[in-house]
Amino acid sequence: QQKVQQSPESLIVPEGGMASLNCTSSDRNVDYFWWYRQHSGKSPKMLMSIFSNGEKEEGRFTVHLNKASLHTSLHIRDSQPSDSALYLCAASKSNYQLIWGSGTKLIIKP
Amino acid sequence: EAGVTQSPRYAVLQEGQAVSFWCDPISGHDTLYWYQQPRDQGPQLLVYFRDEAVIDNSQLPSDRFSAVRPKGTNSTLKIQSAKQGDTATYLCASSRGQLSNERLFFGHGTKLSVL
User: Fold this and answer.
1) Of the candidates A22, A104, A34, A36, which has an alpha carbon nearest to the alpha carbon of residue B91?
2) Which chain B positions have a beta carbon within 8 Å of A98's beta carbon?
3) Omega into A110 within 30° of 0, i.e. cis?
4) pLDDT tens digit string along B89-115?
5) Spatial distance between the Cα atoms of A47 and A52, rounded to a whole number of angstroms
6) Contact A95 B98 (CB under 8 A)
7) Are B47 and B59 in contact (CB under 8 A)?
8) What is the average per-residue pLDDT within A10-21?
9) DSSP 8-state code for residue B104
């Protein structure tokens, strides 16, 4: 059973639109959430991380975290074709085990 | 800062053949990970090291896979007798320390096709 669930599996958003991606951990022993982005044929690169309740914004990207429900979401406003990628969510434990989700494939349609 | 270096970039094998992947982590990173990533899926941990010690290899198919990091720097992952189900990209990643807030840096990966 996947301990980090991501939804949706795939998402098509028009250029300039808002993309919203979700991630929930069923393992309560996690204390840090990560979002990585992986362009086709490339390696994953860390996009944002969050460990406190609330939200964190960096440019067009906003991450929310609800620690009570262990749910995080990533929102991309004014989506660009270059945002098309596989978005991976991971949760880390204090012993530094990283639990990865299966990813959301985001396609931005020009 | 130099990134994580992996070689080779690609490998194509027949079933039953052996292959080795090599990884050079970022200098000063004591933690090194090997992941298997099937196409369009998330990475799946195979093994990770802190310095030269194996911390977790519970997901490594030990009958055919082996991994070493003898001096706590470079690492080699070997598949003894490849199967078609091993077709995937093999990613190496490194990080500093063992705190849960340390990000991972990935190499470009080795894309393996087993025919």
Assistant:
1) A36
2) 45, 104
3) no
4) 999 999 987 666 788 999 999 999 999
5) 16
6) yes
7) yes
8) 98
9) P
Q: Which residue in chain B has the smallest CA separation from A29?
A: B100
Residue of A nearest to B56 (CA): A97
**CA-to-CA distance for A85 and B93, rounded, in angstroms?**
19
Structure tokens that stand for B14 in this block: 């027949």
Give the closest of A44, A100, A103 to B106, CB-based. A44
Give the chain A residue nearest B4 (alpha carbons): A43
Q: How far apart are CA B36 and CA A34, in angstroms?
A: 19
**Minimum CA–CA partner of B95 in chain A:** A96
Instruction: Measure B48 CA to nearest chain A CA, in Å.
Output: 10
**Contact: A92, B100; criterion CB under 8 Å:** yes
Answer yes or no: do A94 and B107 touch at CB < 8 A. Answer: no
End-to-end CA distance of chain B: 37
User: Tokens standing for B106?
Assistant: 């990935």
Backbone angles phi, psi at B57, to 5 degrees: -125, 25
User: What's the rounded Cα separation, in Å, for the pair A15 and B79?
Assistant: 43
**Cβ separation of A100 and B44 shorter than 8 Å?**
yes
What are the CA-CA distances from residue B44 to residues A101, B38, B80 (Å)?
Answer: 9, 9, 19
Element (H, E) at A3: none
Per-residue model confidence as pLDDT tens digits over A53-95: 999 999 999 999 999 999 999 999 999 999 999 999 999 876 6
